[in-house]
Design goal:
Blueprint: H1 8-16, H2 24-36, H3 43-55, E1 60-64, H4 70-79, E2 84-89, H5 92-104, E3 111-115, H6 118-123, E4 129-134, H7 141-148, E5 152-160, H8 181-193, E6 198-203, E7 209-214
Parallel strand pairs: 1-2, 1-4, 2-3, 4-5
Antiparallel strand pairs: 5-7, 6-7
Helix pairs in contact: 3-4, 7-8
Length: 215
Amino acid sequence: MSDGIQSPVIEDYMRSLLTHTDHPVLIEMEEFARLRDFPIVNRLVGIFLETQAKMINAKRVFEFGSGFGYSAYWFAKAVGADGCVMCSDADAANRERAEKYLAAVDLWQRTEFRVGLAQDVFAQTDGLFDICYNDVDKDAYPEIWQMARNRIRSGGLYIADNALWHGRVAMENYIDAVLGSTEAIVEHNRLIFNDSEFDAFINPVRDGVIVARKK
């Protein structure tokens, strides 16, 4: 069953090709999210994130909004033993869950998980990143883009989930559960596509994943 705007038939077909990615811990994470209605990227997006990171040989990743470590699972697989995924989340309980899950698959040592507002955590870091990944509250998307764009190395990537926001970005009339979230994502996407320093594309899998490459 699709949890995004993509045809359920296409989603099921694509997922049928991915049986080799099953792992008990990964399945446990997905079940935790399902039972608690916790928003995570799904398996297809996770593999897409891992592939993007591998394609640019990413070693240093920053996540704006890490939840309990589901997306970090995929990035940590990609960066290798000498890489680092810097995670941020305001809920200390999510850090504890992330440690439990990622330690079980020998990926915790590749992560640095800080509890706090993503913007504040990011401001406390130095240097450039290979990838900045954004999955915070949607009204903060334009702010996150402005913060991240100057901290990505040449050839590096900015990636954000929910770039199509259940199709609302293309609708004239819509109802937002969180007031202003659609307008924020529309502005976020416009800023990125109008930025001459980046090449951008939206992968429409699930709820849309925008990828912008620093020239």
